[in-house]
Amino acid sequence: MITAGVDIGSTTSKVVLLNDDGIMAREVIVNGALPADSAWDLFQNTLINAGIQRKAVAAVAMTGYGRRLANFGDMIITEIKSCGLGAVAQTCPAGQIYTVIDVGGQDTKVISLNDDGDVEDFAMNDKCAAGTGRFLEMLAHKLGLTYPAFVEVALQSTAMIQMNSTCAVFAESEVVSLLARGIDKADIAAAAHEAIAQRIGTMVRRIGSKEVFCFTGGGAINRALAKTLEEALNKKVFIPPSPQTVVAQGAAIAARQKLEQGEKT
Amino acid sequence: MNVLFDALEFFLRPFASALFLPSLLLIMAVMTGRGHSGKSRAAIALWFALVFHIAFDTAQLNPKAALWLARIENPFMAFLAVLAIPAILLRAGIWRRGLLALSIAGIALAGLEITFQYKQVPSGQFIWFPMRPLALAGAFMGLLVLAGQFLPLNLLRKTVRIACLVLLLYGGFAFRQSWTDYTQAVERRPHARTDIMTITETVPVLRDDNRLSYAPAAPCRFSADGGYFQGCNMELAQRIMQMDFAKIRAGDTGEISLAAKVLAACLALFAMCFVAGRWWCGWVCPLSTLGDGFDLIRRAIRLPHLKPARTVKLSYLLSGISLSSFGLLLARAWPNLDANGMMLGCKIPLYPFCKICPGQQVCPIASRGLAGISPLPGAEWLFGFFRYGIVALLLLFIVSFLTSRRLWCRFCPMGMLGGLFNGGAMVALKKNPVKCNGCGACNEVCPMDIHHVQAERVKHEVTTYDCVLCLKCVAACPQDACLSVELAHCAVCESEFKPG
Amino acid sequence: MDELINEPYRLQPGFSDNPGNLKRQRFAEDAQVRLQAALRERPPNIGWFEDLMRNRDFSTKQRPRVGYLCNMIPQELAWALGADAVRLDCGNAGAALVGEEMLSGEICPLAKASFGVFMNKDSMANSCDVVALPTSCDAKKKLGQILDDIKPAFMLALPPEQDHRRYADVTLQEMVRLVGFLETHLKTKLKSGALLAAVKLGRRRSAIVRKLQAIRMRTPRVMSFRDVMLVLQGSQFRPVAISHWITEAEKVVAWADTAAQQAGTTKGLKPRLVLTGAPLIWPNYKVLNVLEECGAEIVADTLCTGEQSCFDPVVLDETGVKPLLRALTNRSVFAAICPCFTSQTTRLNRIISLVEESAADGVVNHSLRLCQLFDMETYRIEKVLKARKVAFLNIRTDYSLEDTEQLRVRIEAFLETV
C-alpha cells in the first residue's frame, strides 16, 4: 500500500511517499506565489521520479499551514499530529522520543508525546516571527551573509553577547548598531541562535517535556541552532536524517493508519 | 377482635424491643458498607427478624429475662421497625406496594378497633377514639408511611411534627385504651390538679406503672395525659439522681426494682438515640413544634430572623449545660430530704429541673389550656430561685423562638443527648462536595444556623452536634444529588432542583 | 458610588463620534449574524432573539433602565423596581478599539469594549439611567469611577473569599446599599411582593436554562451552542421584559425537546467539550465559531455569559425583603464561579461535575489576553484536570479576528488528541 503525505508550509512544501517497506521518496520545494500550485507540481514530480502512477497511491494526506488550500488530498491532518507521528517513526538510537521540537519557516512547535507515542500536549509560537526560521534569515541578510555562511560563522563564535530586542524587526536595527560597535559577526550570529534557543527552552519547560528530544523541521538542518539548543536545554537532541520531511512523513503514516483502520471495520 | 390483637401482639412484640431495631440497622449498615445488594440485604433482614423472634420467644420462658425484655418495649418501635424503616429503605416497586397495603391495613384495623371499643361506651357519653396502643401505633405509623409516599420533604416534616404533637400532648387524654381506662383516668384527674408534683402517675402509661418509656425529644410528663411516653430524658436523669443508693446497697427491693426500671429505660433511650441521633428534635419534639408556632408569627409579619453570633450560640450551650447540671444536682438531694421535704432550710421540689423548664409550662398549657398552668412556686421554694427561674426561662423560650428560629434548641438539655449521638447514629447527613456551588442556601434555611454544611468541601459526612436533622437543607439545596440523608448507609432522599 | 457625590474631581463626560469605528462595530455584529444564519437547525423563533440583539435604537424606553456589569448584580432588583436591567459587558471588537485608543491598550478587551461603548452617545450604555458594578476584577474596580463621570455609578464591594460564614452579613449590607441607591435614583420603593415576583421570574429562567442544558447534554446536535448563547444573552444584554423573554425561550425549549426526542438515542460522533473561562459576549463568538466549525460539540459551559449565568436559582424560604435580599446575595455572589475570589474550588467543582455529567471528552479554557485573573486561574485548573486524566486545551485570545487561523490549528490538533 502506497500513501503520500503533503506538507504545505509557509516557505516550503514537502512530499513523502510511503510504502510497506518504508519511505519511497521525499522531496522539498520552495513555494512560489501560490503554495497549492507548488505543492501539486512537487507531488507530480515526486511520483515521476519514483516511477509511480497517481492511481497507485491509495491515499494522500494534506498537512501544514496550507492543508486546506490544495484540493488533491483525501484527508486533512494538523501538522502537530503529523509531526508526532513522523518523529515516532524515526529510528532513534538514544531511546523513545517524548518531545518533538519543530522549528519551521514561520512557526515553532514543541510537542510532548505520551508512552504510546500519541500527542499529549503542545505549545506553538505562531504569532511572532522572533522564534522562527524567518528571524535567522532576516539577520543573515542584514549581516550580508548567505544562510549557510551565517550558520558556519555562528559555529565559530567565541564570545557570548545578549541580543536585547524581543521583536525580530527591532533586532534588525540592533544588529546594525552592534556591527557599528565592532562586534564580530560570528558573535552576533551566535547570539541570534541563542535567542531562538531560549524561546524554545521556555516552551519546552512550559509543557513539562522529557527526553528523548527530537529536533525536526527546516531549523534542524542548521547545525548551529542544534548545538545552541542542546546547550539551552542541557540535553542531547536527536536529529533525524531528513528533518524537514518528518511532518510530511507523519502525514503519510496517518493516511496509512486511516486506511488500515478502515479495512478492519 | 381480641383474638386478632393477641395474635398481632405475639407477632409484633419482639420487634417492639429496644434491642431489635438498632441491631437490625447496624447489620444493614455493615452489609451496605460491604457492598451487598438491596436484595441480599432484605433477605438478611428477614432472616435476622426470624432468628430474633425465636430467641425472644424462648427468652420469655425465663421470668427474669421476660421482665427485663418487657421493660424495654414500646409498640411504636415495633411499627417503626416493620413499617416506617422499610418504607424508607426499600426501593423496589413490589415491596413498596406491599408496605402501602400494610399501612392501609393498619389504619383499617384501627378503624375496626375503634368501632369495637365504642360498642362498650355507654350511649350518650363521648370520648375521643378509644383504641389499644397497638392499634394506635399501627395506624399512626401507617398514616405517616402513606404521607411519606406523596408529600414533599418539607410538608412531610410538618405533617409528622403535628402528628407527634397531637399524639404526645393529647394522646393520653384523647386516645384511651378503652372505656374502663378512660373512666379511671378521669377519676385520677382531680387529684392531679392539686398534687401534680407527687410521684403517683397522673400520666397514664401504655400498660402499667411498672414500665417507663422515654423518647429523646421533649414529650413533657406534665402534658395532660401525654401517655405514650413517660417524659423527656431529663426526667429520666432526675430519676437516676433521685435513687437512694444507700437503700440499694442495703438490698431494699423496691429501690432495686426502681433502679432496674430506670436502667432499662436508659437502655431503651440510648437505643432510640442510636437509631436516629438528634432527628427526634427535628421531627418529633412537641416543645419545638409549639415554639415554632412563634416562628410562624414572625414569618407571617415578615420579620427577618436574627442570626445568632458565635458567642451567643456558645453561651446558650454553656448555660444549658450549667442549668441542667444544677437541676440534676438538686435532684440528688431527694433521698436526703427530711419529712417536710426540706434540706438545709430550703424546700427542694421532686423534679427541680422541671420547675424551671419552660416545657413544663408550655406543654400542659397547650394540652389543657390555661387550666394547665401549674401553680408558680411560692416563697417557700429555694431562694425564690424557681420563681424567677421559670419566668426567665419561659421568656427566653418565647423570645428565642420569636426572633431566632431554633436558638432555644442549643440550650435545651433534652436535645444535648441526641447531639452526642449525631456523629455515629444510623442517620447521617451526607454531602457530595463536588456538586456544591457554595450558595449557602443550606445555611439560610437552617434553623440552627449551621455553616458547616456549606463550608465542607472535602468530606462527605456533614452531620454536626447541633444538627437537628430537620432536612430543610436537603429540601432547599438547588443542586441535584448534593445533599442527602442516609439511614444505615442507604440513601433515603437527595436534594434536587425543583422548578417553580 | 453615592459617597462620590461629594467627589471633588468630577470630569465632564467626553464622547467620541467616530463614524468609521461605528461602522466597524456594526460590521462585527452583522458578520456574526450572517455566520449563524448559515446554521441548519435553528429554533423557529430564533429571529426574535436575533432582532433583540441587533436592535440599535435605544432612545425610546418604556421603563427606566439600570445598566450593570458582571453577573453578580442581580437583575431581579431592577425588575422589582419596575426597571429594565441591561448588562453592559461588551463583546464588540470595534468598541474595544475605542477603549484602546482612549483608555489603555494594556487591559483586557472586555474592559476596553465596555468603556468604548460609553463613548458613543447613542449607545445602549448611554441610554441607561444608572450603572452598578461589583468590585470583581481590577478593571471593573477602576471602571467604576471612570463611569461615574458619565452616569451615576454604584460599586458593590465583593468579599475577597466566598466564605459564607464570614462575609454573608457584610455582603448583604452592600446589597441593601445597592437597593437604597436604586430607590433614590429610580424614585421608587422596593416592596417585598414585587421582589418576590421578580425572583420567581428569575427562577423560571433558571428552570429554562437547566432544561436546555440537559437536552443538549443528551443530544447536543439539536441546537448549536451559538444559538443557545444568543437566546440566553438576550435576557441579559438587551433591554427586554423578562416575562416576554421567558415566553419565547420556553418555545425554544419545547422545540429542542421535540427535536431531541426525534433524534433518538444514537451517540453522536463529534467530540464533546465543556467550555470554561472568560466571558464570550455576542458578537465575539469567534472561539465558538472555530470550535463548531472544527467539528466539536460544546455540551456544557461555565461561562458567566452562558448557561452558568442563569443556572443557579434563588432559593426561596422566607419572603420578606431582607430574606429575599439574602437569597439573592447567596445566588449572585456566593454561588458565582468568577476567578476574582481567592478560592477556585467552586469553579473546579463545576467543571468536574459537568465533565462527569456530560461524559465530555475534554475541557477547553478560553482566557482573554491581558487578564491576570484567568491566566493565573488556568495554571491550577490545568494541573487538576490533567491529574484526573481530562483532556485540556487553553486558548488565549482577544476580540480581534486576526488569530482565527492560529486558533483553528490549535483546536484541530486538540480535537485530534481526544
What does this structure look like?
The complex is a heterotrimer of chains A (265), B (500) and C (418). Helix content of chain A is 42%, strand content 22%. With 265 residues, chain A is of the alpha/beta class. The two termini of chain A are 18 Å apart. The mean pLDDT of chain A is 88. Chain B has a 3-stranded antiparallel β-sheet. A two-stranded antiparallel ribbon of chain B has the order 1-2. The mean pLDDT of chain C is 93. In chain C, the strands form 2 sheets. A 4-stranded parallel β-sheet of chain C has the order 2-1-3-4, with helices on both faces. In chain C, helix 3 (75-80) links the parallel strand 1 (65-68) and strand 2 (84-87). The radius of gyration of chain C is 20 Å and the shape is globular. Helices cover 52% and strands 10% of the residues of chain C. Chains B and C meet through helix 21 of B and helix 7, helix 8, helix 12 and helix 13 of C.
Topology summary:
The complex is a heterotrimer of chains A (265), B (500) and C (418).
Chain A: E1 2-8, E2 12-19, E3 22-30, H1 35-50, E4 57-63, E5 75-76, H2 79-89, E6 99-103, E7 108-113, E8 119-125, H3 133-142, H4 147-155, H5 168-180, H6 185-206, E9 213-216, H7 223-233, E10 237-238, H8 246-264
Parallel strand pairs in A: 1-4, 4-5, 6-9, 9-10
Antiparallel strand pairs in A: 1-2, 2-3, 6-7, 7-8
Helix pairs in contact in A: 2-8, 3-5, 4-6, 4-7, 6-7
Chain B: H1 2-12, H2 20-33, H3 38-59, H4 63-71, H5 75-89, H6 93-118, H7 133-150, H8 153-174, H9 179-194, H10 233-242, H11 245-250, H12 253-276, H13 279-283, H14 286-300, H15 310-331, E1 342-343, E2 346-347, H16 352-356, H17 359-368, H18 385-403, H19 408-411, H20 413-421, E3 427-431, H21 441-445, H22 452-455, H23 472-476, E4 483-487, E5 490-494
Antiparallel strand pairs in B: 1-2, 3-4, 4-5
Helix pairs in contact in B: 2-3, 5-7, 6-7, 7-8, 8-14, 10-12, 10-15, 14-18
Chain C: H1 19-37, H2 46-54, E1 65-68, H3 75-80, E2 84-87, H4 93-102, H5 109-118, E3 130-134, H6 138-148, E4 153-156, H7 164-186, H8 192-218, H9 225-237, H10 242-263, E5 272-277, H11 286-293, E6 297-301, H12 321-334, H13 345-358, E7 362-368, H14 372-387, E8 391-397, H15 404-417
Parallel strand pairs in C: 1-2, 1-3, 3-4, 5-6, 5-7, 7-8
Helix pairs in contact in C: 1-4, 2-9, 4-5, 7-12, 8-10, 11-15
